[in-house]
Predict the 3D structure of the following.
Amino acid sequence: MNPKTGDILAMANNPNYNLNTPFTINDPSLASKWSTLSAQDQTAALYNMWRNTAVQNTYEPGSTFKFITAATALNENIVQPNHPGDFYCKGYEIFPGTPKDIQINDWTYPRTHGSESLQDAFANSCDPAFMQLGQMIGAPTLYKYYQAFGLFNTTGSGLYGESNSIFLPLSTVSHNAVDLATMSFGQRFTITPLQLITAVSAIANDGVLMKPNIIKSVKDSSTGSVTTTQPTEVRQVLSKQTADEMMTIAQYEVTNGTGKNAGVPGYSVAGKSGTSEPIANDPNAGYVSSFIALSPVQNTKVAVLVILYAPQGSNIQGGVIVAPVVSQILKEVLPYLDVTSK
């Protein structure tokens, strides 16, 4: 996406299917048993194959969502960008529960991060620090910003079948510290990839949220007249100062934190890794690894979100297996967009 205009520059899903032969099954195992399926099951399988995952499927964004939590805290003057000791990570947080207290571990548990600033916590992708930050902000303020970032509504992109997010009611989260804690680092709610990249792009656009746009222009074949789609501003979500501070923090994450593999020689990159656990009560769900990047940091030209569903292997962290993919994309896209290297 171009954060300045909301233009969707590219969108792809894998496995894909051939639009010219949409009834050809792209899954060999499914194709082998196709004749044994009922007509109803065949129809369901086709519609599932045709789904645009980036627009129609929701997922738990994990730590990429820390962009939103951190930006909210900065805009509300709850914390400063790089004030030492605002947080302390002992590797976990404990919350009152029934019949026993609930311990939520950091992804590095039993290792700890110790004393941290917001910038440190973002670079370390420290869940305990963001659980603490969520408590500082409070559910009502978080929900106010979720609304402002457009996360409670479809984006209005015009893309077919666009889905909306699924959040717990504010009244529930306000009275449940565990729900507030997990939400603060991007779990136990679901949004679409399109909603996330649109919201994070606002941070790269001086705090202004843009409406996603898939149509650049329309030409009338009979008259030759061309109608060009103009960028649509939705609202100012953050102050420019907050947006600038957040971009600096996110750049530090790429140069010094879990996002090092997303760096591109000669270019400035801001970003955040993410790894979320399987959705609760869904036995077929797997982990989700992702990375979102913004480049260049000043006068950002492109936002890139890559999501890998159900990754396999011993290390499934987004900063390890997805960030290199984002780096490769940026290496090709930035010169294509005539962005000059430093």
